[in-house]
Sequence to fold (350 residues):
Amino acid sequence: MRQFNTAGPSVAADHYCVDPLTRFNLDEIISLIDSKRYFVLHAPRQTGKTTCLMALMKYLNKQGRYRVIYANIEAAQTARNDVSHGLRTVCSQVASSLQMHLGDVVTANAWLKIFNDYGHNAALMQLLKIWTQADPAHPTILFLDEIDALIGDTLVSVLRQLRSGYADRPDNFPVTVILCGVRDVRDYRIHTSSGEIITGGSAFNVKAESLRLGNFSQVDVRELFGQHTLETGQQFEEKVFDLLWKDTEGQPWLVNALGQELCFKMAEGKDRTRIIDAELYQQARERLIQSRATHLDQLVDKLQGEMGGEMGEMGTFMQLCVSYETHNCMNVPPTYWPFRKSAYPTISGI
Fold:
């Protein structure tokens, strides 16, 4: 039985999911690729970036015009300013992806020799050149996920090797590189081991565009919950969708987390003959807030930082969480919280 996904990439066989290729402007991305552009795709965590990149990779490889790989390089974060350690990890991840996604065993097995022959400040660039040169009739495309997990000199080296190879595309270097992370590369402030601060825009000045992956639309939310109804027969009261949108504004993790709480965690919701109504929904919302789930904490931290205290742009649910976090930590009596009990009667202490 499929469920709502609250951790990791969505898998259609296991999870209710919106078609990932509808989450962004596919025509715009194809146009950037055909124009041989390098660009950034960024969004908060648990928004669906990895799911969308994996779907795009499969779509492009199926078309047969390009050879595309996706590589998650977050493991290189622990290297920090140890460039040799960091680039060794990055090259290893790229090589693993070559074998996993394209079956390119020859290039994948050559990465360590390339690393030893060319050194850490040129190994990634040379690995990508050898991969590209192996079949010039099918240009290469590289998706690097979690790029902003890298730190200091390691990040600078990766960005500069990509920038150095840019002029050699398309016959000798990837025609397109998509950097994916939580932040836009222009917002990077990279602290090197020498104490120098380098901006991402300077280290990677070949970027053509920055695309942001948005939240679910109201149509997406209804489609997601509609899949549950189709597979289980369980119905939702219309008011639930109004509350869900008001609370989440389509934030993908929140939408899925509330769906999972409602339909698979709460005993009442597991009864497929019961219609999910507003009262049950509000109970699920309270349970989720009080659970202090990891991703919920991350969203609260990010929103507090990004909004600078301005909560008008957040969905009601996230406003509640920020308020809960701020005032609970300060031991401020609930009476003085900005959300009155009369407005949210099911939230404990508010």
Remarks:
- Strands lie at 38-42, 67-72, 140-145, 176-181, 189-191, 197-199, 207-212.
- Residues 83-102 form the longest helix (20 residues).
- Residues 129 and 173 are 5 Å apart (CA to CA).
